[in-house]
Amino acid sequence: MLKKSRLLHLRPRPMTLALTALLDLFTIILVFLLLCFQAQDNDFVLDPNNELPPSLTSSGFKPGVNISITGDYVSIEGKKVYALDRGQFTNADARSRSIAAIQRAIQASWERRKKEKNDEKVAVIQAHRSIPYRTLSLVMNSAASGGFTRCRLVVEKE
Amino acid sequence: MIFARIRKQRDLPQLNLLPVMNLMVTLIPFLLLSAAFYHVGIIPTSSTAATEDVEDDARSVTVNLIVSKDRIEVSATSGVLEEETLELLSATLMAEDGRLDYQKLTDALYAIKMRFDLSDTVIVMPKDDVPYDEIVRVLDATRERVLNRGAASELRIPLFPVILMSRLVV
Predict the structure, then answer these.
(1) What's the longest Cα–Cα distance across chain B?
(2) What are phi and psi of B135, to 5 degrees?
(3) Are residues B64 and B123 in the same domain?
(4) How distant is the Cα of B101 from the closest Cα of chain A, in angstroms?
(5) Inter-chain CB proximity A156 and B128 less than 8 Å
(6) Nearest CA distance, A116 vs chain B (angstrom)
(7) Pick the residue with more confidence: B49 or B112?
(8) What is the domain extent for residue B29?
(9) Which of A12, A100, B6, B155 falls 20 to 30 Å from B76 in CA-CA distance?
(10) Which chain A residue is nearest to residue B138, measuring alpha carbons?
């Protein structure tokens, strides 16, 4: 009888979830994400077709007019302005000093940008790591013809 | 005895982790949206069109680098120094096993910097077929000398932070 009465005391209690293991996991994810967190909005979108070269630079990103050079095209602020053939300009344009279409697009982009933001007149160039200097130089010259003599080459920090 | 132990275990206070979990579930999507999984940096450069007149000084030279796939040619110019002095600063760094030695380039530029401490400008002239990847490595070797890389005592000595990009006209 005594045993039975004791057993009656052991009434089932409401079930609780064991959250400790899940909390451990979340804490690890939280710490990882806090390390990757970027508070500043850089207004920079990495072109998915670009693979940036690694660099030892310690200079942080600063915004400017975004120019992207991939193997297939040159784009300015996300808008394709010139088609490339495996990272090269066409023969006729490759021999010229600057590309008028790129120059016009950069200037138009700058006109829009300076109304919205108080940025410096600097071109931010992201290029695929395999792009030859001939192409890079021609884009830089085109930017310089449009008044963008200063450039920031975008790299991936090692 | 056994029942007493079971009851003791059952009566242990349990932490209410639900509010913490709620906070986590809110924070994680926010941080996921703001996370940057690649760390982007920049290398500031100018085209030679932006060149201002450099004051001639006996303590400064302008370094020129001609970069090709198999070699880097280093030379220096100055409006004050004699041609013989500048000639001594010239060097050609050949690629070994098809790879350029960027540490040798840094060492050569460091030697120039030690001798002409006010120098800060380098004109980089890569050949047309040099890929962007190689140019970035040359610029890294040119801008600063990194000692104890990766260690807590890492030291970065500026070499030639002002970079002018030019094109070699053949």
Answers:
(1) 101
(2) -65, -40
(3) yes
(4) 15
(5) no
(6) 23
(7) B112
(8) 2-34
(9) B155
(10) A55
Here the CATH number for the domain that contains residue B155 is 3.30.420
A150/B44 touch (CB, cutoff 8 Å), yes or no: yes
The pLDDT of residue A147: 87
Phi/psi for B77 (5° steps) reads -130, 150
- Mean pLDDT throughout B65-93? 91
Q: Torsions phi, psi of B46, nearest 5?
A: -135, 155
Q: A133 vs B135: CB contact, 8 Å cut-off?
A: yes
Cross-chain Cβ contact B132/A133 below 8 Å = yes
CA distances from B25 to A23, A37, B31, B52, B123 (A): 10, 16, 10, 55, 52
- Give this complex's ipTM: 0.77
Q: What tens digit of pLDDT does each residue of A14-70 get?
A: 677 778 888 889 889 988 888 877 666 667 788 888 899 999 887 878 888 999 999
Helix (H) or strand (E) holding A35: helix A20-36
Q: What is the mean pLDDT of residues B131-140?
A: 94
Tokens of A3: 């045993």
Domain that holds residue A62: 54-157
B30 and B96 both lie in a single domain:
no
Does residue B151 sit at the A interface (CB-CB below 8 Å)?
no
> If pLDDT is split at 50, 70 and 90, which confidence band does B134 have?
very high
Residues of chain A with Cβ-Cβ distance to B3 below 8 Å are 6-7, 9-10
Average pLDDT for residues A110-124, to the nearest whole number?
Answer: 82
Are the beta carbons of B43 and A46 separated by less than 8 Å? no
B127 within 8 A of A132, measured Cβ to Cβ: no
Q: Per residue in A123-142, pLDDT tens?
A: 999 999 999 999 999 999 99
